[in-house]
Amino acid sequence: MYPEDVRYTENHEWIGEEDGLYLIGISEYAQEQLGDVTYVELPEVGKHVRQKEPVALVESVKAAEDIYAPVTGVIVEVNESLEGEPELLNLDPYGRGWCFKMDDIDTGQYRRLMNREAYEKYLKSL
Amino acid sequence: MEVKKTPLFECCEKAGGRFVDFHGWYLPVQFEGIIAEHIHVRSHAGIFDCSHMGEFIIDGKDQIANFSYLTCSDFLHLPIGRCRYTVLLNNDTFIIDDCVGMKLDEENLFVVTNAGPLEQVSSLLCNSSIRAKNISNQIVKIDVQGPMSLDVLIQSGFSPQISELKYWTGGKYKWKEEEIIITRAGYTGELGYELYLPPDLGVEIWDILISNENVKPCGLGARDTLRTEMGYPLSGQDLLPDMTPLMASMDRFIEWEHDFIGKDKLLQQKEMGNYPRLMGIKTYTRQAPRHNQKLTLQDCEVGVVTSGTFGPSVGTGVGLALLDKQASKPGTILQIVGRPLQVEVSNVPIYLNGTARKKVS
Q1: Is A33 part of the contact surface with chain B (CB cutoff 8 Å)?
Q2: Measured between CB atoms, does B285 come within 8 Å of chain A?
Q3: Which of A58, B234, B319, B352 sees the fewest Cβ atoms within 10 Å?
Q4: Alpha-carbon distance B11 to B23, whole Å?
């Protein structure tokens, strides 16, 4: 359920490398907890963000939750299809439901995030 | 306090319910998903386990009159078979709970209340002047809601006679040898029926209903989005202990010619006119207002969101808010504090295509 090749935060974001950039989304656990996602507010492209800074907002029928930058870096692209199809976050959180891309990231921070095994252990502790 | 299970707990568990603690009861918040369930109720039929609610029988005309005195409605002169929505009031005409009364016959009134304040309501209704019988533990309540609800019930073995029920009426019907109460009412805005059943029969009927291809089990989540689109208030959330029926925008449910507790104070408030009131609100996008957010008009705080959610049938955020009089006119645009989001004050219902009042016979 949790792809091997991405890293996770305690706030249930995932971040994974693709073609030199870093893709960020929310985990299967996060989408499951949120329920039907109804609205996604995405960050501004070009924005410099610090690790743990709130950069996006996900609203579901039940709740509204911030998405935090998993690492320090620059936002270089956002997933615009989420505006019309916010439910992609539920349907395909590691694929078409990605939220934004970052570049120039702090790779030290990235390496210190949880791998899949550590994240699964973390989920069990909740 | 131990969280209680309704007699339909196993049925809901088997149907894939995800449970939450709602006023001391384990109840399903959702099965397949809130939006899917919501849409199904608006287009087909959904069933809800509402066994957590309170049910009372008031026996005797004097007792019915004494009960009426605690509400803004005259139940003594309510025609047999008619339901009436009302609120239980304290000395200051503040709302204790909202409830529905249905006249079973000249001498008997059936009263349905909420789970939250049930203990307080029970001690009020079972006092020496009303002597209501609290039958909440002997009743499983299943709400069958949606434009197909009547067809589903008849296909499930209910008497075709139930099609004679008009909106907000009810009566006693037979299921095999057992007597049950059915009202044509609900909390969704759709054609719907509320079944009051002995627990064993409740389980049997739930199983029959859920096997119908047009029925989906629905949870508290969909119940909340459906009722919010209709602007129906939720006891304990939109109706608060310092609110009067006028503040709750219940003007049309207040029978002024009837004598009730604290009526002078309520009349005084009506004449003063300058009280905050509960109004519908909607956004212009898919963003939703949220419970307890503050609202401003020209930078002055004018109210608070009491309920807010995404409205799947409306396609925008919807909610209810308690607003100062000067901010309560439909069409007024208010700002949510701390969010880049505006709401427009709206009359209720916000969703206008409900089938609740549909003619079926």
Answers
A1: no
A2: yes
A3: B352
A4: 20
The amino acid present at B250, given as its one-letter code, is M
Whether residue B160 has a cis bond before it, omega within 30° of 0: no
pLDDT per residue as tens digits for the range B221-243:
999 999 999 999 999 999 999 99
Contact (CB<8Å) A64/B221: no
Residue that is written with structure tokens 């009837």 in the block: B258
Secondary structure letter of residue A23 according to DSSP:
E
Q: Which of B53, B187, B27 is nearest to B121 (CA)?
A: B53
Backbone angles phi, psi at B306, to 5 degrees: -100, -30
Nearest beta carbon to residue B287 from set A35, A36, A39: A39
Domains defined along chain A, listed by start: 7-106 (2.40.50.100)
Among the partner residues A59, A61, A62, nearest to B287 by beta-carbon distance: A59
Give pLDDT tens digits for B251-261: 999 999 999 99
A83: Cβ–Cβ under 8 A, 6 or more apart, which residues?
A40, A42
Q: Which residues contact B215 (CB under 8 A, 6 or more apart)?
A: B44, B45, B46, B47, B144, B152, B209
Quote the tokens at residue B170. 């009810």
Compute how many other C-beta atoms are within 10 angstroms of the C-beta atom of residue B349.
19
- Please report the domains of chain B, with CATH numbers, ordered by start residue: 4-51+139-229 (3.30.1360.120), 53-134+244-274 (3.30.70.1400)
pTM of the model: 0.95
